[in-house]
Write a structure and sequence with these properties.
Layout lengths: L1 H12 L9 H15 L5 E5 H5 L11 E6 L2 E6 L2 E4 L4 E4 L5 H18 L3 E3 L3 H10 L5 H16 L1 E8 L2 E7 L2 E4 L16 E4 L1 H9 L1 E5 H6 L4 H13 L8 E5 H8 L6 H18 L5 E3 L3 E5 L15
Antiparallel strand pairs: 1-11, 2-3, 3-7, 4-5, 6-10, 7-8, 9-10, 12-14, 13-14
Length: about 325
C-alpha cells in the first residue's frame, strides 16, 4: 500500500486524478516508483533517427510514409511478401502503432546488446511481450505483434540527414531476412521465428547511433504510440540542450512531428500534454515547460546516465 500511496502522490503532481487505478495507471505507478528508487537493470535502445521521427499511429491505406524533424528525414515504403499457398506476392501494410515501436525497440536492443545483426527472437520476443503485459500473452496479442513484425520486415526504409549543405542517405530494410510464415504447434498456437536478421546498413547505423532508454519506462508507456515517441525524443534531445540556455519548440513544429492525425492544433495540444504528463512520470529528470508558444526544453540528465551511454548521438 505504501508503494501505491507514494506513486499516487507522484502521479498527482503531474495532474493525474484517480481513485482506483486502471491497469495502465498501475503500470505508470509501478514504473514511476521503481525508476525513482532503483538504478536501471535493463537498457533498451532506439535508433536516433527513429527518436526524432516516427511511424504512423494508426493503420493507413497509404503505401508510403514520410516524417521530417529539422535536418532528419525518414521515409518508409510498405512492402510485399510471397504467399506460399497462393503462390503470389501480396501487399503488407505500413507498420503502425505502439506494437511496431515496441518490436523495433526490442530488435534494436538485442542487436546492441549482442553486437550482432542476427537476433534470436523465439524466446526473447516472447519474454519481452510477457514483460510488457505482466503475464503470458494470449493468441490475439501475439497475432497483433506478429502482424507488425511482418510489416516491419517487408518495409523499405530511407533515412537521410543534411549537414553543411550535403545530404547523407541510407536506403535499407530494417529486417533483411526472416521466416514470414510463422509456424504453428500442434495446438495451432502461433510461434515466433527462431531468428531474424537486420539489414546490414540499418545495423551499422544503429550501432553508431543507438539512444539508450530505460526499459521500465518503455514498458510503462507501452500503451501509447505518442507517449513512446515523446519519451524517446526527449531522451535523445534534452541532454544536448546547452546548460546555460533553453530551446523553445513551437506548437506548430510539435504538431508536425507528433500530431499528423490532428487537424486542429488545440486538440493536438490537449492530447500531447496528456501524453507528456505520462512521460514525465517515467522521466523525472526531464526539464520541460509547456507554454502558450510551445514546449520549452532545458538541459537534463538522460534516462540512462552518460557513463552507460554507448555510441549515442
Amino acid at each position: 500500500m505504501s508503494k501505491m500511496v507514494r506513486a499516487g502522490d507522484l502521479l498527482s503532481q503531474q495532474g493525474f486524478s484517480f481513485s482506483e487505478p486502471s491497469p495502465i495507471q498501475t503500470r505508470l505507478i509501478e514504473g514511476a516508483v521503481d525508476i525513482r528508487s532503483n538504478p536501471p537493470d535493463d537498457i533498451s535502445y532506439q535508433h536516433s533517427v527513429l527518436c526524432q521521427t516516427s511511424l504512423p499511429y494508426r493503420h493507413t491505406e497509404a503505401r508510403r510514409w514520410e516524417k521530417r524533424n529539422g535536418r532528419v528525414m525518414l521515409e518508409i515504403e510498405a512492402g510485399r511478401a510471397y504467399h506460399p499457398e497462393k503462390e503470389e506476392f501480396f501487399d503488407l501494410p505500413l507498420p503502425f502503432g505502439p506494437k511496431a515501436r515496441l518490436i523495433l525497440i526490442h530488435l534494436n536492443s538485442e542487436a546492441v546488446r549482442t553486437q550482432s545483426k542476427v537476433i534470436e527472437v523465439e524466446d526473447s520476443l516472447t519474454a519481452f511481450v510477457r514483460l510488457l503485459g505482466g503475464r503470458e500473452p494470449n493468441g490475439r496479442e501475439i497475432t497483433r505483434f506478429k502482424d507488425q513484425l511482418s510489416a516491419l520486415s517487408a518495409a523499405h526504409i530511407r533515412m537521410a540527414t543534411a549537414v553543411e549543405g550535403r545530404a547523407f542517405q541510407v536506403n535499407t530494410n530494417i529486417v533483411h531476412k526472416f521466416d514470414l510464415w510463422f509456424p504453428k504447434d500442434q495446438n495451432q498456437r502461433i510461434l515466433w521465428p527462431s531468428t531474424v536478421e537486420l539489414g546490414t546498413d540499418y545495423f551499422d547505423t544503429l550501432i553508431n547511433h543507438a539512444v539508450p532508454l530505460d526499459q521500465r519506462a518503455v514498458c510503462a508507456l507501452s500503451h501509447s504510440s505518442m507517449a513512446l515517441d515523446i519519451y524517446q525524443w526527449l531522451a535523445q534531445r534534452l541532454y544536448r540542450v546547452p546548460k546555460s540556455d533553453s530551446r523553445l519548440v513551437p506548437w506548430v513544429n510539435l504538431q508536425q512531428q507528433f500530431g499528423a492525425d490532428y487537424e486542429r492544433i488545440r486538440k493536438f495540444r490537449e492530447v500531447f500534454l496528456n501524453a507528456l504528463r505520462e512521460v514525465l512520470t517515467q522521466y523525472p529528470s526531464a526539464a520541460v515547460v509547456p507554454s502558450d508558444e510551445g514546449l520549452i526544453l532545458k538541459n537534463s540528465t538522460p534516462p540512462i546516465r552518460p557513463a552507460r551511454l554507448i555510441a549515442g548521438v
